[in-house]
Amino acid sequence: MMRRLLHRPARIVPLAFLGAITVGTLLMMLPAARADPGGAPFITALFTAASAICVTGLSSVDTPTYWSPVGHVLITVLTQIGGFGIMGLATLVGLLVTKRLGLRSRLMAQAEQGALQIGDLGRLLVGIAVTMLVCEAAVAAVVALRLIGHYDYSPGRAVWEGIFHAVQSFNNGGFALHSDSLASFVNDWWICLPLSLGVVAGSLGFPVILELARDVRRPACWSTHTRMTVWGSLILLAVGFLVILTFEWSNPRTFGPLNLPTKTLAAFTQSVMPRSGGFATVDYTAMNTETLAATIGLMFIGGGGGGTAGGIKVTTFFLLAHVIWAEVRGEPDVVIGKRRISESTQRQAVTVALLGVALVAVGTVALIALTDNVRFEYALFEVTSAFGTVGLTAGLTTSLGPAAQLLLVALMFIGRVGTVAFGAALALNTARHTYRYPEGRPIVG
Fold first, then answer.
1. pLDDT for 423-432, tens place per residue?
2. Whole domain around residue 121: which residue ranges?
């Protein structure tokens, strides 16, 4: 059975995550997981388990008050499993796809991936686990010390909150032990900055982290994937920062009352979190429509491939940008960093992006149909947050009915595992025909 699955890598990720969500739902239904007497209803447990396993962070209930300490521990464990699973399985699928390529393509792919091979799987998984634990421990230590020294938390509570939020941070989960997410810490650099850096690290992906650890001072030696992920992420962070700071600068319900350093921190934090982090230091229902539109765009793009972030991935977005630029200039090839991008890779990027647009569009229409008196931009925001496994909310999720919650569960699942599984399926779709039809020329534009 396992051997057959390894030869069909597109099936590994969905099956693994379905199994984890099923077990997680049963655990969240236990009476011990809920703060009030009695177990959680099935739909609530399913929504929470799916959100944790898919490292989304959306919640249909108030996480700090609805769930007991046992429930909070379960959310932490499920998020860790989901984050480790997606990093490990995405990397494994990449290696399996490489193994199925032809010799020439395989050698090129291995050169781009640092010569990792299937035989390195054990070392690879250990490396992912160590990377996760080290990053989470560093973030947890800073947050815990800040809570003890500045907010007079007891050591036990501070350590627990540090661990909980560090796990959510690196895994791009977004659950918080405060009803207002991180709004209470909007002006605290020692809370927001470490958690933001944890989100960025997790969103890069293990292959990129491994390559940066080896060649961080030699950008010219980076693979095409690492180059696109790093520079693309920096560009999106800068654009998000400037857009959010500009549109919210004088908004009396968000940035208006804040001083300059706090506005800067809030803009930076909220430019990071739409990449799939999910923490909020301001109320999104109070933001301007322009800011919501920019945030929706950032959520749809997401983070790096093989990381804990969701979305169509930053490499897909910037590859399409290069395709457009090459077409506008009349170039015969799409070239990134002195590497020509194959036509099959270009088609995969177009397919993933357009399917993402279709899912978000259909999901938005469905959510509006299932919900009374919902504003279009809020429905689009919630659907994109679910598809991009972000976890940010415009205050809509807690008021949704069972059918609408199931819709978001489906979007979280598709958004989390669909890009990896479908990407693998496209890469392995290597059917060849012995004939070609005459070329057609439809009018475009």
1. 555 555 555 6
2. 2-428
